[in-house]
Amino acid sequence: MSGGKGFFTDTTLCIGCKACEVACKQWNQLPEDGFRFTGMSYDNTAHLGASTWRHVAFVERPMALHPDQDGAFSWLFSSDVCKHCARAGCLESCPTGAIIRTEFETVYVQPDICNGCGYCIVNCPFGVIDRREEDGRAWKCTLCYDRLKEDLIPACAKACPTESIQFGDLDQLRTHAEERVEKLHERGLKDAYLYGARKEDQPGTEGLNAFFLLVDQPEVYNLPPDPVVPTKKVKDAWVSMAATAAGMALVTVASILFGGKGDRS
Amino acid sequence: MSNMATRYPDSVDPTRTDGRDINCEVAELSGEAGSQFISRSTDEHTGSIAKAWNALPEPRRDDPTYYDRPMLQEPVWEWAIPLYYYIGGLTGASLVLSAAAQLKQAAALDLLIQRGHRIGFIGSLVSGGLLIYDLGKPSRFLNMLRVFRPTSPMNMGAWILSGTGASATGALLLRQRGGLLGNAGGFLGLIAGVFGIGLSTYTGVLVANSAIPIWQESRKALPVLFGSSALASLGCTFDIFCERPEARRITNLIGNVGRAAELMAGMAMERHASAVPRVGRPFKRGISALMWRGAAFLTFASLVVSTLPNRSRKSRIAAGLLGTAGSLLLRVTVEHLGAVSARDARASFHQQRAGRGAAELKKSPQAADDGTDAARLESSLDLLGDQRRLL
After folding, report:
1. Which site in A9, A99, A256, B317 is 20 to 30 Å from A79, CA atoms measured?
2. Torsion of Cα atoms, B293 then B350 then A118 then A112, to 10°
C-alpha cells in the first residue's frame, strides 16, 4: 500500500465551516441535491450521496469535550468522505469493472463504463456510493483524480481552513496522525484515536486510504464500529450454494427415477 | 446537456437551473461530475435527502446513532429484481428437470423435456429483459460481460444467465433433430441443466454478498431458500398447466420437496438473522414481518393442498397458484427486508458490536484469504486486460 495517496481527517480541528463541501461541489461540478431543512443540528446535507462527496457531520453531545472540563454540552464536527478502502466493497462487487484502483491507490468509478446496476450501493459498508435516479449511474468521491494527475491536492483539502483535512502520502499521513494522537493524549484528551489508519485497526477493510481521528465512538459520527467488506464473508454463501446445487440435482434426478413410477403399470 | 447546465438567463433562483449554477457560455462541464445528468423538468428536488422526523431523536450515550439517520444506503432495485429472482429460479429449475429427464432416456418423458426447454428459453429471455430494465443505463448492459470477476456474484450471474440462455436455446432448437445436430442438442440440454442449477441458486449469493446486516447474517440460508423456492415454483407451474399424469407425478414430488425445503430454509434464515435481535427485527415488526409471515403461510397452504389425497384438477390449480404467490411474495419480501435493514443504523452497529463484523473472521483465517485469491484469479482472467486504463 505504500506509494498510495489519501486523506487524514483530523476531526478535532474541524470547525464545521463546510468549505470542503462547497469546494468539492464546485471543483467537480456537482449539482445540488435538494435544499431542505433537516432539523439535525446545523447539518442539512445529512449524508454522502451521488452528488455529495463531502459531508460535515454536526454532533451535539450532552457532555463536556474534555474530562477535566465542566459543562454539559460539546460539539463534534467531522468531514466525512469516501474511505477509499484497501479492500473496497464497491470495487469487488462491481460487475462491469467500472470501479478501479488508480495509480494513487484510490478507488475510482469510471462514469463511461458504469451501467447503473446498483450492486456497489449495497456493498459499501459505509453507505457512501449512491445512484442518482435521473442519471442512472453510481457516483462517489474520486479523491480528485483529475487534480492528482496534475499534481494538485484535492479541492476539499485545499479549501480546509484549519487543516482538518490533510492530503498526502499515506505513510507520512499515518505517522503524522499517530503523533497527533499522542499529543492529544498528553493534553488530556484520552479519547482520541485513529479510525481505520492501519490494516490492524480495521481488518475488515484492511485499512482506509481516507482515515480519521475521532474522539468518541464511531457510531456517534455515523461510522460503523467494525466494518467488513462483504466479499470476506461471502464464502459461506458460495458453500451453501454448492450444497443447494447438489441437493437440487439429487431431488430432481430422484423424482425422475421414482416419481414417474407407476406410469407404465 | 450543456443546455441543462446553463443558468436560465434572467433568474438567480437556484431551483431554476440544473443545480450547478454554471454559465456554459463562459465555462465548460469538464469536471469529474460534469456529465452527471440532472432532470429539472419541475421544481421538485430529488436526491437522497432526509425525511422529516415524526419525533425528535433522543440521544442515547449507551446506544448512539447520528440523529437516528441511516448509516447505509438503501438498495435502488425496484420490482423487476425480485421478479427476476422468481423467473430465474423457475427457468433454472425447469432446465434441471429437463436435463435429469434426458438422463433417463425414456420416450414417455420427451414432452416433459421439451416443456422444460421451452420454459428455459422464454425464462432466460424474460430474465435478461428484467435485469436490463432495472439498470440505470440499460444501453450498457453488455458491460457486464467485459470482465470475468469472481468477487462479484452479479458478474458471475451475468455469465451464468448468458450461458443458460445460449444452451437452452440450442437445446430447444436442436435436440429433436436427427443425427449429429440432435446429439449436440442433447448435450446442450445437459449443459443447460448445469447452468440452470447455477441460475436458480446464485441469486442467494448475490443478495448475501452485501453490507446490509439482515442479508449478510442470512448468507448461509439464502442460497438454500432461493434454490428450494425455485423447485417449488417449478412444481407449482406444472400444477397449474400440466395435464399429463406421468409428468405430474414427477413435478408434484419436486414441488412438494421444494415447498417443504423453502419453509425450513425460511425458518433457518430468520433464526440466523435474529442472533442479533436488532438485525432480526424486520422479521418481527412492521409490514416486512407481515409479508414474511404471509409468504410462509401461502407456501404452507400450497403444500397442504398439494399433499391432499385424491386431488382434483381444481385443487391442483389452487396449490399451484398458492405456491406461486408464496414464491413471488418471498422474493419481494427478501428485497424489502434489506431495505428496512439498511434504514436502521442500529442494525449495523449492533451486529458489529456483537462481534459479527470483521471480528467474526478471526475465527476462520481461511475466509480472509478467500477474497485475495479471487482477486488474483480475476486479474488473470480480466478480459479487457489493464483495468487501470482510463477511457
Report:
1. A99
2. 180
Q: Sign of the C-alpha dihedral, residues B159, B161, B165, B168? A: positive
Q: Which residues of chain A have pLDDT under 50?
A: 1-2, 262-265
Cell of A44: 442539512
- Assign domain B80-352 to a CATH class: mainly alpha
Do the Cβ atoms of B337 and B214 come closer than 8 Å? yes
Which tens digits make up the pLDDT trace of A161-188? 999 999 999 999 999 999 999 999 999 8
Distance CA A252, CA A254 (A): 5
DSSP for A16-66, please give it: ---HHHHHHHHHHTPPP-------STT--S-S-BTTB-EEEEEEEESS-SS
Taking CB atoms and an 8 Å limit, are A137 and B136 in contact across chains? yes
- Chain mean pLDDT for chain A: 93
What would the grid cell of residue B333 be? 419480501
Answer whether A96 sits within 8 Å of B246, measured CB to CB: no
Confidence at residue B294, expressed as pLDDT on a 0 to 100 scale: 98
DSSP output for B79-139: THHHHHHHHHHHHHHHHHHHHHHHHHT-GGGHHHHHHHHHHHHHHHHHHHHHHHHHSSSGG
The Cα–Cα gap between A139 and A144 comes to 13
CB-closest option in A128, A222, A241 to B204: A241
Residue B105 CB-density burial (10 A; 0-12 exposed, 13-18 middle, 19+ buried)? exposed
Q: What angle do CA A196, A201, A203 make, to 5 degrees?
A: 95
Q: Which DSSP helix (H) or strand (E) runs through A138?
A: strand A138-139
DSSP-assigned letter for residue A216: S
Nine-digit cell string for A5: 495517496
Contact call for B36 and A31, based on CB within 8 A: yes
Cell 440460508 found at: B221
Find the helix or strand (DSSP H, E) in which A236 lies: helix A235-254
Give yes or no for residue B21 having a pLDDT over 50. Answer: yes
Nearest CA among A195, A210, A201, A178 for reference residue A55: A210
Minimal-distance CA residue of chain B relative to A48: B48
> Among A252-261, B135-144, B205-214, B231-240, whose mean pLDDT is lowest?
A252-261
Q: Which three cell numbers stand for residue A258?
A: 421414482
Residue B282 grid coordinates: 424486520
How long is chain B? 391
Write down the domain spans for chain B: 80-352
Q: Does A31 sit within 8 Å of B137, measured CB to CB?
A: no
Q: For the segment B51-71, what is each residue's pLDDT rounded down to a tens digit? A: 666 666 667 778 999 998 999
